[in-house]
Design a protein that fits this description.
2 copies of one chain form a homodimer. The first copy, chain A, is an alpha+beta fold.
């Protein structure tokens, strides 16, 4: 699929078919995340791919009961192992680096005909407990994947003029 | 360009031709960022597109003297206007949301035949001073853009087995 089409047709999918994801598709999606750039190429990222149904059910509970976390065929849990790394601008490396990798995966899922949805509403301590994640690891976000059972319209976006200025700040 | 090719061929480019970016290409790149998903679709993002040469020179100084910040034809400065928003998982929304939008732009630049490079090594207060950015705004990262004057080889990446585990944490 063309990049532009992937960007334009990606949706947050919250209804899924009860149908597993082929392993070759899953591996290509994960590989898209593997190839993502990261600060100083540190690649501080670990992805837990959860397809076990009981664990998806428990992750759904940890995600404030969002049912699609259980209904999706796989949950990719994006983790950072060295969350103490900071960039000179003052930002932590890990949320940015994980977001870039998960964004690559979300676009790759679209290109594979799969739906995805970012999950940021979850209790990190519960997710860590369910998946035996050590204390120092941070869970940044989850990306759920599966065959879409809905075709939502595009959500509204601000106009380019509202979010773009030239050469200096303007409100 | 195919998504997969964009992901595979994207490089961090640090040498640029002295050649402006066509406006239609720049607008398509910005639009790729505009279409990116964000937490609760808040779209808290503002992009300052800096092509003015004197400002690029000063941004280069603010970026610890990295010369390619000045040599690139445009610097996209990714800003968040409401950096106080937090997701239930405890992460701030803004670094993740800005990273996703800038990642879209970096891939779109690749598809347009342009090079790009994430810049995280900068002094935020100096960047804000140069571009008249108000105090409460956060500058998350800069993405420099231009026609590449180098063709670097792909940087090494960890193997998929090193960064992927299934159904529970493993080291």
């Amino acid at each position: 699929m063309e990049l532009t089409e992937a960007i334009r047709s990606r949706r947050s999918i919250r209804k899924y078919e009860d149908r597993p994801i082929e392993q070759d598709k899953l591996l290509r999606i994960l590989d898209a995340g593997r190839l993502a750039p990261s600060a100083r190429n540190l690649q501080d990222r670990k992805f837990i791919v959860v397809s076990d149904q009981d664990k998806r059910r428990r992750l759904s509970e940890a995600a404030n009961g969002q049912p699609y976390v259980e209904k999706a065929s796989a949950v990719i849990v994006g983790c950072a192992t060295e969350p103490e790394n900071i960039m000179p601008c003052g930002q932590f490396c890990y949320p940015i680096d994980l977001a870039v990798a998960l964004d690559h995966m979300s676009l790759a899922a679209t290109a594979e005909g799969l739906g995805s949805c970012w999950i940021g509403a979850f209790q990190e301590d519960k997710v860590k407990q369910i998946l035996d994640i050590p204390e120092k690891i941070r869970v940044v976000a989850m990306l759920i994947l599966g065959y879409p059972a809905e075709s939502p319209a595009a959500r509204p976006r601000k106009k380019l003029e509202e979010i773009t200025v030239y050469d200096k700040w303007e409100n």
